[in-house]
Known about the structure:
- The protein is of the alpha+beta class.
- The chain has three domains: 2-149; 180-310, GAF domain (Beta-Lactamase, 2-Layer Sandwich); 331-383.
- The protein has 13 helices and five strands.
- It has a five-stranded antiparallel β-sheet, sandwiched between helices.
- The longest helix has 45 residues, at 286-330.
- The relative contact order is 0.06.
- The model is unreliable at 148-152 and 421-426 (pLDDT under 50).
Amino acid sequence: MVCFVLAISFVLGQGLAVLPWALLILGVDLAVGRLIANNDGRARRREAFALLLVAAVVAGVSVWINPTPVSGAFMLLLVPAYRAGEVWGRRGTLLVVMMSTAAASLGGFAAHRLDPVFVSYLIQWGGMALMVGVLGAWSTFLREQSATPQSFTPGAAREAALLLRRLGTLAESIDGGFDAPASAELLLDAMDARVRSTRRGVLVGFGSDPAVPFALRGAERAPWDEPTADQSLLGQAWRSGESAIGLRTNESGDERAVMAIVLRDNSGERIGVVVLDRSATNPFSGSDFKAAVEVGEIHSANLDVALIFAALRERAGYEERERLAREMHDGIAQELVAIGYSIDVLRRQAKTEAPGLSTSLNTLREDLSGVLVDLRLRISDLRIAVRPDQGLGAIVGARLQRFVSSTGLGVVLRLIESAFLRPSPF
Length: 426
C-alpha cells in the first residue's frame, strides 16, 4: 500500500514531499507487525496499538505539513487504518481514523490552513480510510472462517498442559489436596477453633440435589431433618442460600441452638451448608455467627475445587471401567468361548473314538464354563457403577439380577433409599 501511494505521488510530481512521511509510517507499521507476530500476550498488543496510533498521528501531520494539500499525503491515512481493521476490527479502525483526522485538523488550524478545500479533502479521505479499515476487518474475518479446526489443536493442547501443571501446583498447596471429605474435615477443624458446638456437620448439594453429609462430628448419623424438604431453619437456609441462626426443636421436644452457614462457589451458587448446634441454654451469639461465616467463606473455595475434581475423577473412572470391560469382553472372553467350542468338538469325537476321555473332557468343559461365568460377572461389575443419574437401588437391583440369571438362586430385595441419613428412632 505504501509503494502504491509513492507511485501515485511521483506520478503527480509530489513524491519527494511524501517520501519521508511514507517511509516513517512504513517503519512504524513494520514494528507494529513484528509486535503482533511475537504474540507474547496483551501487553504486546497494547504496545502495538500505541505504535499504530503514532503512525496515525504521523499520517495526520503529513497532511498539513506541506504548503498545499497533497493528494499523496492524504492517501497515507489509509495505511494505519487498514492495519487497525485487520488486527483490532472496526473499533480500532474508528479510533485510528479519528486520531489521524484530529491531528490533521489541529495542525491545519494551528497553521491557519483550514480552508474549505482542505476540509473537503480531509473528509473524503477520512471516509475512505474508514472503508479501508472495515475491509481489513472483513478480510481477517474471512481468513478465520476458512481456517481449519486442526490449526487450533496445538494451541489448545498447550493451554491444557498449562492448566494441568497449574492444577498439580494447586493440589500441593491446598491442605488436603483435592479430596472432598478431607476438605470438609478441615472446614470442621477451622469451625471448632472459632465456634464451640456439640454437633456439627458439612452437608453438600448443588441446586435441587439432595444433601449429602461429607463430614459429621458429635453424632453417628445426621441429627437434622433433610433440608430439601424440611421447613426448619436448616431447610430455609438450604433453599434460600442465606446463612441463618436460631433455635430448633427436635423430635423428642428438646430445644437446640442451630447455625446454618451457607457455602458458595465462585459464582455465588450454594454448594453446601455447615450446620452447628448445641444446647439452647447456651445460644449462639452474633460474634459466633460472624466468625462462622468468615470460616465458611475462607474454606468454600477449597471444598468447591475438591468437588469439581471429584466429579472429573468419577467421570475418568467411568470411562476407564468401560474401556477395561470392553477389552475383556472383546478379547479374553471371546478366546475362552472359542476354546469351549473346540472342547465341545473333542467331546463329540471322544464319544466314538476315545470313550475313556469323555468324562475328563466333560469336567474340563464344566470348569471352563465356570470360568466364563465368573469372567462375565467381572465384566458386569466393571460396567455397573454408581453414577450421578442412577441411584444405589438401581445399581444393586441390576447386580442382583445378573447374579440370579447366572446362578439360578432366588433373591428377594427390599430397599428403601434415602440420600440423607437420619438417626434411628429405636
